[in-house]
Amino acid sequence: IAASKQESSGTSRRDLGSWWKKFQGQAHAEAPGKNEYRIFGVALDQSIMYANVAISLFNEAGESYIYGYVPIIVGKCGVFLKGKATGVEGIFVTPGQQERVQELKVVFHSPERYGKGFDWAGYSVHDAASTLILFLENLPEPVIPYEWFKAFDTAMPNEWRRVMETIEEYQSLIRRMPAPHRQLLLYLLDFFVVFAAKSDYNKATCSVLASKFQHGILRRHDDVQDHSNEYETSYNKRVSQGILVFLIENQDHFLI
């Protein structure tokens, strides 16, 4: 992923290095049996240790550096979709073929490659989009963890809070998120902006993107456990989608 960024990158790169060494140490110390390494339905901070791909940014001098890591499935689907699907109408609305999506799930779910070097021949962009959404929706916790929902909700603009105040609060919240979740969120926001910029062709407006990806990115824990109050669940869903729309529309403020 290439993006420009004004840097205080010395500190961020040191933080990334120490975080990555810590995770590598955990991976060796707590490694399960080889057949237990999976990604679907597995916590992000666990699966990222063994099924990751680096993402890069460019500093002001035009030098590339590793910003962080995202799951291989996200990187592979992201590159394929950005290269082939930005002009495809209904890219995130039209579902992929179910059998092929299940085949892709097996490819990205299986040790030891997890889809590295995978050739997309025979699979459609809709298959890839559906697989990406399926992966995110199967995370035990959404990309923005449950404990952060209230803070993101409270910080939304209203008659007492200006847009820039919300942006600054979200910047602070995103900086404090666990590294695997923060890096995945920022990757996805960048990904969404690419499609929203061509929404005249693909119909992937910010609202459509928020609707299709909200469940995997931001939701209340109560909405998973309790379906008895349909009105409250529907309200929380609209709130989550509104927050995600705001994050996409202001993505350029969140290259942290």
UniProtKB/TrEMBL annotation:
GO BP term, example: regulation of fungal-type cell wall organization
GO cellular component, one term: cell cortex
Sequence ranges assigned to domain Rho-GAP in this UniProt record: 55-255
Coiled-coil annotated spans: none
Keyword list, A-Z: GTPase activation
Top-rank taxon, per record: Eukaryota
Zinc-finger recorded as keyword: no
InterPro entries per UniProt: Rho_GTPase_activation_prot, RhoGAP, RhoGAP_dom
Gene3D superfamilies: Rho GTPase activation protein
Key word Lipoprotein present: no
UniProt-listed SMART domains: RhoGAP
Chain segments annotated as transmembrane: none
A Gene Ontology molecular function term of the record: GTPase activator activity
Protein name, as recorded: Rho GTPase activation protein
Organism, as annotated: Mytilinidion resinicola
